[in-house]
Amino acid sequence: MSVQATERHRHPIDRRALVAGRLMVLVAIVLSALTLRTAVTSLTPLLDEIGKEVGFGSTIVGVFGMLPTAMFAVFGLLTPRLALAFGLERVALGAMLMTGIGIATRSMVSDTAALLALSALALGGMGIGNVVIPPLVKRYFSDRVAMMSTIYITCVQVGTFLPALVAVPVADVYGWRVSLGLWSLLAFAAALPWVGIVISRRGRDRVDTSAEPHAEPGERGRAWRSPVAWGMAGMFGMTSLITYSMFTWVPKILTEAGASAAFGGAMVALFSAVGFIAAIGAPTLCARIANPYPVVIACAVFYLAGFAGLLFAPMAAPVLWILLVGLGPSTFPMSLTLINLRTRTAAGSAALSGFTQGLGYAVACIGPLLFGVLHDLTGGWTWPFVLLLGAVAVILVAGYVACKPRFLEDSWT
Fold this sequence. Notes:
By secondary structure, the chain is mainly alpha-helical. The chain folds into 2 domains: 1-202, Growth Hormone, Chain: A; 222-413, Growth Hormone, Chain: A (Up-down Bundle), CATH 1.20.1250.20. Helices cover 79% and strands 0% of the residues. The relative contact order is 0.14. GO terms for molecular function: transmembrane transporter activity. It comes from Rhodococcus maanshanensis. One of its GO terms (cellular component) is plasma membrane. It holds the Pfam family MFS_1.
């Protein structure tokens, strides 16, 4: 009898326990992914109403607009160290608790400073969640990376548009405080399975360096030494810069061209909805193609065609332009999937995830601001779109580096 068969005979419930454990992790990942954007999109549709009651103007609205990417960047860089110190599962639990507490308490405050501080707390939790979910997928579902990436990214998309869809109707009936605070229930629900997972691991929730080849203790987290990491950060960062610039400025581009404000808002919703196509298709393509760089080239073509339409004839076919631009950010789910496909270990995945998202969101934070500054300085949209063309050029170069079939751990020393 083989060793494996002997072990199965001695411990007949181990396989059932493993399946049950993976099911609990799946539930935790799904609920966490649904939570990762709720503090952002549940707030932005209500900022005018909240500003009138709490007492802030357009400048503070701009601060709220920059706060998500700023917090995602800060905690993207800090999270790998937290994971080393406390373990991925404990950090995931802490992230959901931070998010739930931040969302719940900010709905009770009546001054701007507290609203900003508690929003930052919630967004910090989301920033941690952004980073730890990919290595958790790597740890528990290394045999199902493409499928789990599709589930995870699709849930992020649902958690992006659903709060925005119901924020105003709920606020009209129950008030903005209820509309904001109800999303804390989802974050606390996401924390519950992580509690069970942490307890079940009984001290084994720290990343075990000794069990992972290619991850020496002194070298863990030094992703910045690898061209893989820089390629990933460049592709992710420039994609995020373009995406947040479009979220911010598409309504103004179209209204200046003669569209109504409602139409501009609908086009932002369409831009978000197109992300579902990428969330479903990109992870599978990345898993099946050794070098998915042709997908990056296709994304660049979509960007260029959509930008040209918005710049030179925005009202000729605005739906088509937004559809084209909306397909461009397919490099976002590609990046999240490649975090696991370009690493050998959970430690490498955590380091690459933190570096990619930390640096990427730091760059994305300045995108909408620069886009607006260039518009104000020139009085037109040509130079703002030149900025985005530069971002597309970086995506092409960085994507070429990131998509090569090689591993972070082979080059991060």
